[in-house]
Design brief:
alpha/beta; eight-stranded mixed β-sheet; five-stranded antiparallel β-sheet; globular
Length: about 325
Amino acid sequence: MAALLEVENLRVDIPLGAGDLHAVRGISFQVDRGETLCIVGESGCGKSLTSLSLMDLLPPKARRSADRLAFDGIDLAKVAPSAMSDIRGNRMAMIFQEPMTSLNPAYTIGNQLEEALLRHRNVSGREARERAVHLLEKVGITGAASRLGQYPHQLSGGLRQRVMIAMALMCGPELILADEPTTALDVTIQAQILHLMIELQKEFGMGMILITHDLGIVARVADKVAVMYAGQIVESGTVNEVFENPMHPYTQGLLRCIPVPGKTRRGEPLGSIPGIVPSLIGEMKGCAFANRCPYTFEACLTTDVPLFETGSNPNAGRGYRCLLSEQQCIENAKEVA
């Protein structure tokens, strides 16, 4: 059975005065129904542009290409704009990072919730309103009917994010893309929103791509993980595989930065990754992580490193992008454990 979403060799290039910015450089992944894929990485690694490219919401100058970009068998790379408009917000929906800039301040919450259902379904205004009230209650907003007449500025950050989740669910999508949906919220509200999204995903059987830089979130909600660095996926696998046996030096470095209760001593400095991310403008050679990696050798500077498949099941998506042997990577991972 084919995956709900299939992405092979996705690239996003943006022309600039100094040359082309290679923002996303040949990434591949799959998402099944009812499965959560977390794409994790530091700011600027290409996570958000990946999600925007799937929704066909890239900036006008950006160029998207892929060997395969299929949603439920539909070739998204070749679909007409009108057909993509029928899919977007209907079968595929997105929850954006900052709800205050994603919600229109000039329209009520009710207007914005009902709009998607009226656009994609043959329903009356009354039915759309009832659906909006039902979903606002489902996402934990009390007095849902009275909220429909309010404007975004009248709601707290947590409530606005719940409205965004309800809006994404209005048409019962098969795939949700959530771009750092809890970044702007305090820790208590973050936990509530994450718990809510997990429960809703199970109830509706949706596939979900969750984009984040928080490995704590990944550990709690992911089925599969794709670690991105400088526009590439440098490691992928199930959440247990990646956390218990990180293969790539970048993943290992990220995990060293996390304080572990009972292991990290008070006052002890946390781990860090020295150096800076390389420029993605113009021609690139070798491993993008070479200038920050403690294991770099000469070939790393000149060889384009593929994503090596590993593990007993070649279809499981376990892989790492490093010239070190699998055994060397395993030995290095023991330092993180």
